[in-house]
Amino acid sequence: MKHILPVLLALFMFSFFSGTSHAALLKIHVAAFTVTGASNSDELKLTLQGILTSRLDPELIQLVEKPDQAEILITGNYAQFGNMFSLDARIKTKRDGSLTTVFEQGETQADVIPAMGRLAQKIDAKLLQNQALVKLPSNTTTALPSGTQDTCVILSGQSTKSGPDSWSSAPLAGVPNSIATGLTRSSGERELFIASENAIRAYLKGNNLRLIAETIIPAPAKILALDSADLDKDGTLELYVTITTSGIPASRVYRLDGSGFKSEAENLPWFFRGIGSDFASRTIYAQELQADGKFYGDVKKIALSEGTLTTTGSLKLPRAGNIFNFNQLTDAAGKQHYVVLNEDRYLVVYSFDGNEEWRSSDKFGGSESFFSHESHEHIRSSRDSVSRTFLEQRISMIKDGTVFVPANESSLSFGTIRNYNKYSLFAFEWTGTVLKEKWRSRPASGYLADYVFDQAAGEVLLLERVKSPGLFADGVTVLTISSID
Question: Of the candidates 25, 202, 264, 403, which lies 20 to 30 Å from 362 by C-alpha distance?
Fold first, then answer.
């Protein structure tokens, strides 16, 4: 691993996904609405701004925070007359000052949000006059010989080399949000597990990516995270799947056998997170949730013996820590520390007794994955009974002590609306007093949904969303695998 840093730095100086081309996105600024005739105008003008922003097609636009950064300005007006309302939008092109207007209206307040969706469609249609879209290629799927009808091969896309010893898949099924590595089989193929909100898929990675099993977990269940380990050391992998149902943890443990996924345990009251760069050192941690949607109690280790899961030990994380935002590091003197991404996305190092030792000046992490729960406290602050808790990106570490932290960036976000469009990967080392940056990758377009380091294989696996889902189009996510050894 001594060459890991120079090679990784070289890898990330290349674009991760070079098999597609995009027309330049239109830089759009959406202003706060003007509101007339409604009693809660101050709150409503920002709410409508956020709703419209979230419904514009991300394939067309890049949202910017300030008007002077934009090519096109969108201003909106909401006028209420009794129960009736009118929504009007003005689209102004800064280049030539041309102005276009579109509108929608409704007869009841229940139609406001659907009307906002229709208004966004009309705006998209106008924006299309300023933008020629270049579509990504569709999935390339090859049927296997008779007897293997339930599997398929996802071939790598055109120009899959994105750097030295690097490979990218064609678009994956669904909208994947998490990834875990598996065992390497005698054929030399390696197991990979990729989950979206309601499905887990198992692949074998050889020259291509071959789907071998799938399990569907219907709504309202929602998959949040995926981790793998061999806790009972029997040579068979367990898959720890963090799931919520209506905001309540209902996690599961699976094994993969010849017939597909086999459920080992269901409706577990824990969130899971795996820490460790290889299966020999991998630990699965767990934490519970309170009824109000807040993380509860200490983080504990999961133990597996004779098919029975128990919790053991206890980590008293700093106040800012939870199951999804921490890791542990050991300094040259053997002293242990916590490294945490706090709620404001700053990277913080704590001693094991909870004292803050260092804090970053820049923000890192950033995730679009969340679970929802009922919150009376949230009603008082926002008049909405449903609150969202966002997960955080993994903080990873390899055996030489290098700490890896990704950073997703967004040009604009409102409240709980998150739409990241650029990311980088950072490497740090702990000097004893400072978490010192060793290098950073060049920013890559898209959203990093999840990633994992496989120290045994000497690779980093990145789940990159290169096109976000729209109102009428699926998103596009690819798997990029790059050698780090």
Answer: 25
